[in-house]
Amino acid sequence: MKIAMIGTGYVGLVSGVCFSDFGHDVVCVDKDSAKIARLEAGEVPIYEPGLDAVMARNVAAGRLSFTTDLASAVDGADAVFIAVGTPTRRGDGHADLTYVMAAAADIAVALTGYTVVVTKSTVPVGTNRQVAAQILDTNPQAEFDVASNPEFLREGAAIDDFMKPDRVVVGVESDRAKEVMGDIYRPLYLRDFPVVYTDLESAEMIKYAANAFLATKISFINEIAALCERVGADVKAVSRGMGLDGRIGNKFLHAGPGYGGSCFPKDTSALARIGQEHGVPQRITETVITVNDMTKRRMIDKVMDLCDGSVNGKTVAVLGVTFKPETDDMRDAPSLTIVPALVGRGANIRVVDPHGRKEGDALLPGVHWEADPYAATAGADCLLILTEWNEFRALDLKRLAGSMATPRLADLRNIYDREDALAAGFEAVEGVGR
């Protein structure tokens, strides 16, 4: 199959590379000539474990290429995937479809024969029909079908998620389009990974519903964590006791400083907005958004209390600023709320993150970047753990405490046992829900 992937952001690049590894001929398209030049030189512009090796293998095999020429990529393609950004629209919380519709118009002009135009971007319900209308308005003679194929890639584990998915969701309305999508995903079907075929609207809704539900689990356990702190319970024990119930499951029940990233914040916001527009308010999702914002701000209070009510003139070492481990993504990370608040209160911030500086330099002005945790904590007044990178899971607590001016630990990912930290020399330890 010949595939054109429009957009080389996180979703587009990972999807294009993985489709080529299935054996398809894939051309990834982007208007950013500098990014295309980097890709052609073998440089991966995002941090995603394993992506560089898979990309290099398929470029070498001649199945994967990159271009700024959309028309040449679309010419003769069996399927064209739209994988451009759908950021939250400023002012109303809705998904901004500007890039999706622009891509649809460009594709319409370039179509030369029957093609399935597939929306991979996360889009509100009804968008695929808008894409079809845009194509017909631009090129009334176009021969095509539209399909909805939402992505479910976890940053840091995207290759495995694509190659070994829980499910593939495909929204189609014609047998011809279903056949094309079936051929594209045949390698997964032959290995018994489920491919779920639905109508367009259901496929679009599945993506939002899934992400909203996972965000709900996170906000729920963070509210329970706040209550645990008041009543003397341990949220880790509560989470384990809940998660062993097969109806609930243990994933996304880890208390922390709130969710962030490229999906949950914008998708919950968009779902809430869709509900409002259709007169069916999504009250649970709206509350989830509120709780998540409150959780981030509650973490600021924790650090302030740990530092006797003031961080003015004090040095705070921060471990991790990306929204999760194994990614360089800073979008809506809790650090973007917590760290600036501490800087604004007069704190001197030292930051360590294996891959966070790439985006963090611009997003976190006024902080100092250190190479390792031990350099960051030397002479510091407080150690703050925001992201649970593996590099931070087995630190020498005694060495850390011994090098600090006032050894205080705000472990907002509950990596360390409080008693172990106190025994190692920390004079005060704060976790979440403990």
What does this structure look like?
With 434 residues, this protein is an alpha/beta fold. The chain has helices at residues 10-21, 33-40, 51-60, 70-74, 98-110, 127-138, 158-163, 175-184, 186-189, 200-231, 235-243, 264-277, 283-306, 335-344, 357-363, 373-377, 397-403, 418-423, and strands at 2-6, 25-29, 64-67, 79-82, 115-119, 144-148, 168-171, 195-198, 315-319, 348-352, 368-369, 382-385, 408-411, 428-430. It has two domains: 2-198, Rossmann fold (3-Layer(aba) Sandwich); 199-434, NAD(P)-binding Rossmann-like Domain (Rossmann fold, 3-Layer(aba) Sandwich). It is built from 18 helices and 14 strands. A six-stranded parallel β-sheet has the order 3-2-1-4-5-6, sandwiched between helices. The N and C termini lie far apart (54 Å).
